[in-house]
Amino acid sequence: MEKPNKKPNILVIGDLMIDHYLWGKTDRISPEAPVQVIDIQKETTVLGGAGNVVNNLISLGCDVTVMSVVGEDENSNQLTSMFENIGAKHFLIHDENRKTTKKSRIIASAQQIVRYDHETKDDITKEIEAVISTQLLATIDQYDLVLVSDYGKGVVTNSLMGKINFITNGCNKKVLVDPKGEDYTKYIGSYLLTPNKKEASLATAVEIVDDESLKSALKKLHNTASLQVPMITLSEDGIAILDEKNEVIKKPTVAREVFDVTGAGDTVLASLGYCLAKDMDIVSSLEFANLAAGVVVGKIGSATATIEEIEEYKSSLHKSSIESHIKTFDEITKTVSRLKNQKKKIVFTNGCFDILHKGHVQYLDKAKSFGDVLILGLNSDDSVRELKGPSRPINNEDDRAYILAALESVDYVVKFTDDTPYSLIQIVQPDILVKGGDYEGKEVVGSDIAGCVKLVQFVDGRSTTSTIEKIKCCNN
Prior knowledge:
The protein has about 475 residues and is of the alpha/beta class. It has 2 domains: about 10-315, UDP-N-acetylmuramoyl-L-alanine:D-glutamate ligase (3-Layer(aba) Sandwich), CATH 3.40.1190; about 325-475, Rossmann fold. Helix content is about 35%, strand content about 25%. It is built from 15 helices and 19 strands. The chain has helices at about 50-60, 75-85, 125-140, 160-170, 195-205, 210-225, 265-275, 280-295, 305-315, 330-340, 360-370, 380-390, 395-405, 420-430, 465-475, and strands at about 10-15, 15-25, 40-50, 65-70, 90-95, 100-110, 110-120, 145-150, 175-180, 190-195, 230-235, 240, 250, 325, 345-350, 375-380, 410-415, 430-435, 450-455. Strands 5-4-1-8-9-10 form a 6-stranded parallel β-sheet, sandwiched between helices. The chain has a 6-stranded parallel β-sheet with strand order 14-17-16-15-18-19, sandwiched between helices. Strands 3-2-6-7 form a 4-stranded mixed β-sheet. The two termini are about 50 Å apart.
């Protein structure tokens, strides 16, 4: 069963690199050669390779440590600073004979034009392997599990991979690997691998063209690397595993516009690690990983997915749970920040909403029409009693929040305990504040914060009080 409050502590071992992007536009051909001339307008750098796995884990709220080998150069200094900036711990061995990998891409009009690499691919030395395995043995008890990101740049050697599995299996820790190459005996003892269809076909010598060949490839992966969970990622077709009964379980993804698949495999590895560290079952973990990958392929370059983005994407597919729309103050703070970055127009309203009726629903539907996102502040049970008397509310705050969060017009519900929602409005900073028509000529709490205030008339004859009176009459 998932432990919702558990913050995963995950170790990442693998090849580090810097993904360097030169962004520009092109509208002419060079007179010197038949090539495009790119007018560079922006330059960015992000963590790549195993670093992108680390970045994804940080985005998901994990504590992360990374172990790797880098050169003694400016790129290694930049990597160290990037890890410190995102709060990731690092154990980096500097080898003067290596170049720290940097991949530079030129992007024009949202299309990658060319990439050039600066790197060393030689295997690390036995002495450096020994340092890494000694550090792993000394610290393994700190981590929930280990992720290995093998980009074939020489850090994850055959012998180091064997030592990693020996140490982790001895401590009953799972190892998840993004593999490289065609010989998967290198990964014997790992919990699971995340090869894509092409990689799995090469490693198993099975051309995957249908469900039968997919099952055959999964079985061969299981036998080759003694995996507990044989897995193959299938791009737009999702992810497939072979369960304990030798049956294929396929979790399809949902089509969305794909801008760039760079780093999608890193996101799958990170999100699976996140879920398994929280003790989620493998099927639920697959579903989460599919959603996370769906978020990042909609971005350009090595990207990450936050819990909020995954929830929003899931909601857009009408697969999100009702509970995910009920937020705490801390959670709505992060949500609002993301929404404002996306230039969404935020609408806020509040109330008790004790016995939900047509008037409430029409009011909320009208409120939502003023913007993109409707955030509803809900009076707690104690604050309702202060307003309405000791016999109210009829429905407790959890029930009221759940029903409201299920409405199509309501994006998020946040419970507040104060007499007024002023502190919540300070967090939300709404573009539009909506109240009932009975506030005509009265001061509206939060009107000094919101961009504007709109009043919406209630449906005549519809109120919680009148509903309660009808019930009393029927009982007399």
